[in-house]
Amino acid sequence: MGSFDVADLLGLDELLSPEDLAVRDTVRRWVGERVLPHVAQWYEAGELPQVRELARELGSLGALGMSLEGYGCAGASAVQYGLACLELEAGDSGIRSLVSVQGSLAMYAIHRFGGEAQKREWLPRMAAGEVIGCFGLTEPDHGSDPASMRTYAKRDGSDWVLSGRKMWITNGSVAGVAVVWARTEEGVRGFVVPTDAPGFSAPEIKHKWSLRASVTSELVLDDVRLPGDAVLPEVVGLKGPLSCLSHARYGIVWGAMGAARACFETAVEYAKTREQFGRPIGGFQLTQAKLADMAVELHKGVLLAHHLGRRMDAGRLRPEQVSFGKLNNVREAIEICRTSRTVLGANGISLEYPVMRHATNLESVLTYEGTVEMHQLVLGKALTGLDAFR
């Protein structure tokens, strides 16, 4: 039967091809070299320095828009993209968010709904990390209810003029292009907005206690004039931004398990070396119960992510199933982080260990890309056929 692999309790690596493993190991190695030695300092300082350099490095790895085809994108499988998200978030949720917003939101929107000229202009440079993108949907007063957005676009001759504000926008102040969703007379439309356009600004949001190693901004659109071909031609209505969100949520299903794994592995190693009452605390039944319960939820979550990835690769993944994965995996990841903190005791709050950093990051992951309540209601509607959103 072979030896028991503590790092892979269920033998999930057997589900992966050599190509899958190569992607995972490449991203894991990059995170180990470029993120882990510095991320505690970035987090404490509340900044992500050299973000453009990091983006270019991620582009060289093929991690930006990696599941998209053509235009310089890697054309990787959904499972490979998920594995990359897991490894990135094992480093920090802010790094995974950078990649997720770039590829699954901004690039995905242009790739799926853009015109050929828009794709050729933006996607190759975004895939290479030469241009960073952001995605403007959430507003100061409208998060879970995007249908009530106030940002609007009106026609002025052959041009469009955009006005409004977007809030909590990852990559906003470092982006070269923003995909902004706005109300029009025709319905909700998406616009490709160069961030050097007059009237566009992106003040950075400070004083965060979560996702501190991440760039978060407000987008201000003050009569931003765009040419007529700035609009995404292939979609009208909320199905556009919501399909982008579903793609990004899929990455979170994997990524949350990366944060959970980092905390779990820290707790296991700490429990084997920390002594109380004359022996390692890992030898006490209550500690072992915590470790066993965390291991069960961690590996169940990874198995769920694998299953959803295979369904996405087969073209059969439904939005309700993504909600299932996001709801379960983020909720369980937070619990694993909190339990790991109890194993470490007072040391659990120190940035010498990654546990509290991951726990506070996951508080943001819990509510962005759809709150717990929204995903519960998605599943509730699927189960009953009754819409409880309103």
UniProtKB/TrEMBL annotation:
UniProt key word Oxidoreductase: yes
Keywords tagged on the record: FAD, Flavoprotein, Oxidoreductase, Transit peptide
Classification via InterPro entries: Acyl-CoA_Oxase/DH_mid-dom (IPR006091), Acyl-CoA_Oxase/DH_mid-dom_sf (IPR046373), AcylCo_DH-like_C (IPR036250), AcylCo_DH/oxidase_C (IPR009075), AcylCoA_DH/ox_N (IPR013786), AcylCoA_DH/ox_N_sf (IPR037069), AcylCoA_DH/oxidase_NM_dom_sf (IPR009100), Glutaryl-CoA_DH_mitochondrial (IPR052033)
Annotated GO biological process: fatty acid beta-oxidation using acyl-CoA dehydrogenase; fatty-acyl-CoA biosynthetic process
Keyword rRNA-binding attributed: no
Residue ranges occupied by any Acyl-CoA oxidase/dehydrogenase middle domain in the UniProt entry: 134-224
Domain Acyl-CoA dehydrogenase/oxidase C-terminal residue range list: 238-383
Cofactor: FAD
Coiled coil: none
GO MF annotation terms: fatty-acyl-CoA binding; flavin adenine dinucleotide binding; glutaryl-CoA dehydrogenase activity
Residue ranges of every copy of the Acyl-CoA dehydrogenase/oxidase N-terminal domain listed in the record: 18-130
Entry similarity comment: Belongs to the acyl-CoA dehydrogenase family.
Protein name, UniProt field: Acyl-CoA dehydrogenase family protein
Source organism: Streptomyces roseirectus
Highest classification ranks of the organism: Bacteria, Bacillati, Actinomycetota, Actinomycetes, Kitasatosporales
